[in-house]
Amino acid sequence: MLSRLYIKNYALIENLDIQFDRGLNIITGETGAGKSIIMGALGLILGNRVEGKHFFNEQQKCVIEGYFAIEAYGLQDFFAEQDLDYEEETIIRREITPDGKSRAFVNDSPVTLNVLKALGEQLINIHSQHATLQINTEKFQFLVLDSVAKNQNLSSDYKNAFRQYKEIKEQLTALQELIVSNNAELDFNQFQFEELNKANLQAGEQQQLEDEQQQLTHAEEIKRNLLGAAYLLEEQETAVIISLKGAVQHLLAVQEYLPAGKEWTERLESTFIEIKDIAQEINHGEQQVYMDENRLQEVEDRLSLLYSLQKKHRVDTVEELIAVREQLEQKILAVTNQEEYLATLKSAVETSHKVLEDAASALSQSRKGVVDKVGNYVQEVLAKVGMPNAQLQINLTQLPIEGFKQSGGDEVQFLFSANKGQALQPIHKVASGGELSRVMLAVKSLVAQSSALPTIIFDEIDTGISGEVALKVGDIMQQLAGNMQVLAITHLPQIAAKGQAHFKVYKQDEGEKTKTNIGLLSKEEKIQEVAQMLSGANPGESALQHAKELIEEAN
């Protein structure tokens, strides 16, 4: 509910701080006193756009704050989705600077107008004779049926089943499209895989083959040089090994007389052994080198195949070719696995289809069970408020499962006729603004008996009624206020007398400026105001007595 409204520097308002009652709040005042200004300020914190500049003082910013008790509305998920701090008393603030810039806040967190509007729609319904009422929408019509039928659990079960069915159906569709795409590529992928698989690729083989190719190509040159090195080391008359051996013999002859001779001998002997080993390895290596034209051709053919495959697949190594082969293999296997998964998903779709149909059927049957109750109740109330021949017929049509919506498997239509002999038609086509307002009043009074509804504001919906009908409208508003907060802007004393809190909007001149103010009336002030509404500016004793009786009867 709206517990407090603070307005600063807006239009004719310098400062207003209004504390509202939980029940029926009546707002009265002469035409032009500023009731529409207060409604305009309230609209700004509900997400309406700023149109023009409206400042009491052009040098200061405009600030409007609404304090809302929201614990009964189940808005925790909304606050979480919008990344807002949830508070049971939530404060919405709108600031407008003199240069026209506007900012909005929810519990001191900045928000966009779209977020503000979405939140505002869940906190306050403003109804006027000329407004397009919620009753025209399918969403509200289902809300009426589900609230009266107490379908919270059935509706939740259906929404879960609907979500699961849609998710699985989307997975199935995506998989079917993927399989079609993969099947189109299957033959090509199979050909490429078999080509790579037939190549029998081995990691590291390219480098080995390239090394072998170099040896085979230059075999004659390699053998010639290795033989030359071996000859110089150990075969010619002045070979290195023969010379080293002689040098060792000379050092052995002097080491007895020369202290350093022993060390030189040992080092030279070590060098002799190392060079002798090298010579033996060179001889062995030379024997391993051979000229084989056939093997060279085999190596070059193999390398040519590897180079060709690398160019084809736009890679540089055999290891990358192996990775390509494995990817192709996975794609081929995926087609087979997808067919198995496809069968699993089809089975899951059939199962969720049955669950969804059962949930939709249960919800639909429950709704059908209250159709007559809603229609009869609304007709009874409308008869009391001056529409004795009004009829409301609610039609529910079962949709095919392809047409199921978030709201259920039904299509709903409220058909209405206000007069005898008038054919039933969709309510928004035949009901006038005043008739729609009274229909909404009847519907809200029924729904409020079974669910927590946001604050409702009736903005002069009483135009065109009087007398006993006005009393009945006031009774219904009073009944409605037992389950929700109601703000009613009215010119009818019969309705004004019903209020638990009565506010009067008035203008006053201060210096060269006119201000709009609002005051909560005392009991005596309320009697005076209702009497003035009955008979004019200077009510007589009879008007005052009549006003007192109306107020006492209402309370």
Automatic annotation (TrEMBL):
Belongs to the RecN family. May be involved in recombinational repair of damaged DNA. GO terms for biological process: DNA recombination; DNA repair; SOS response. This is DNA repair protein RecN. The lineage of its organism: Bacteria, Pseudomonadati, Bacteroidota, Sphingobacteriia, Sphingobacteriales. It holds the Pfam family SMC_N. Signal peptide: none annotated. One of its GO terms (molecular function) is ATP binding. InterPro entries: DNA_recomb/repair_RecN (IPR004604), P-loop_NTPase (IPR027417), RecF/RecN/SMC_N (IPR003395). Residues 2-513 form the RecF/RecN/SMC N-terminal domain. Keywords: ATP-binding, Coiled coil, DNA damage, DNA repair, Nucleotide-binding. Residues 151-229 form a coiled coil. PANTHER family: DNA REPAIR PROTEIN RECN (PTHR11059). GO terms for cellular component: bacterial nucleoid. It comes from the Bacteria. It comes from Sphingobacterium wenxiniae.
